[in-house]
Design a protein that fits this description.
binds cytidine-5'-monophosphate, Cytidylate_kin, globular, Cytidylate kinase, EC 2.7.4.25, alpha/beta, 221 residues, three-stranded antiparallel sheet, ATP-binding, five-stranded parallel sheet
Length: 221
Amino acid sequence: IVPIVIAMDGPSGSGKSSASKGVARALGLRYLDTGAMYRAMTWWMLREGVPVEDPAAVAARAMDPVLDSGTDPAAPTITVDGADVSGPIRTREVTNAVSAVSSVPAVRTRLVQLQREIIGIGGIVVEGRDIGTVVAPDAQVKVYLTASEEVRARRRAGDLAADPGASVTVTRAEQARRDRIDSTRAASPLTKAADAQEIDSTELGLDEVIEAVVRLVKERE
Ligand code: C5P
């Protein structure tokens, strides 16, 4: 029996992170948040003063930070040069710069390789934008999680509740911009894999989404 890989892709605010962690816990699997890796790379670029809108400048430094991701769904960690950056990678500054950094092919090549090393033989839920299409095209279960734009903006604004600039209106505009860049970039854009199962979480609670994914896993056994 081959250890399973569950690919969870979709736009921001679709509920991927909560659902992916929940599925991993329900099934006793590891968990990898690839968005956190792109965020960590972005956080490091900003700290180093790299002009993130300049693809050549970003590409030139793409190999420099040492990144590592823990895979415990109960306590996922992300470190840069050994320091935990779980908090700093969630700021608006990083969120609004990450799409520029993640569209640079040298960044993607490096992080996809790292992601494949962590995935190893499997036993893992992996969330991102290109997992079912590029990182793990052989994943046994592929989910494309969506939700209405309105609901996604509300969830994101909730995540950023501590940030006074993050009203639903502003969050919605920033998120639409990020999704547009993520979906239209040349290097592995966000797109639903041909063999992915779409789950629309607009009207679903977290437990229902987790159940739906677990059902897909059980169906193929
Ligand atoms: O999932 P999260 O919103 O944390 O992802 C942050 C950003 O990282 C995305 O907006 C996207 O630009 C990038 N990303 C990506 N490929 C992935 C995961 C995330 O390009 N597999």
